[in-house]
Design brief:
By secondary structure, the chain is α/β, with parallel strands linked by helices. It has one domain: DsrEFH-like (Hypothetical Protein Ychn, Chain: A, 3-Layer(aba) Sandwich). Strands 4-3-2-1-5 form a five-stranded parallel beta sheet. Helix 3 links the parallel strand 3 and strand 4. The longest helix has 14 residues. It is globular and about 35 Å long. The chain starts with a strand and ends with a strand. 29% of the residues are buried.
């Protein structure tokens, strides 16, 4: 299953809900990959301070992905560049892919879940 995350980390509950779904599916030994598109790449900014918003830090959940055997994390290279995100400092290891590669990636999965 490929989970596509397109929402910023704290603008709505969708970012947290998407990670909750990912972790729950992985707990049931589902093969999960993540793709951060558009505003979703903002979740990969390290050391985000979310306590003022009364929300938990998304980065901590992202850092726990390898504990659930989620190692396939892809990022829209154009969106990361647009937001000037240094993916080497991301809370989770990622693979940057181009728009053409995104299409190819999506064809490799039987199920795609978008948030």
């Amino acid at each position: 299953m490929l989970v596509v995350i397109r929402h910023s980390p704290y603008g709505s509950s969708l970012a947290k809900a998407s990670l909750d779904v990912v972790l729950a599916a992985a707990a049931f030994e589902q093969n999960i990959a993540l793709l951060f598109l558009g505003d979703g790449v903002l979740q990969l900014i390290p050391h985000q301070e979310s306590s003022a918003l009364g929300k938990k830090n998304i980065g901590r959940q992202l850092a726990s992905l390898p504990l659930y055997d989620i190692d396939s994390v892809y990022v829209d290279a154009e969106a990361a560049a647009r937001y000037n995100i240094d993916l080497t400092t991301s809370p989770v290891d990622t693979q940057s892919i181009s728009t053409g590669e995104i299409h190819q990636l999506m064809t490799e999965f039987d199920h795609i879940l978008g948030f």
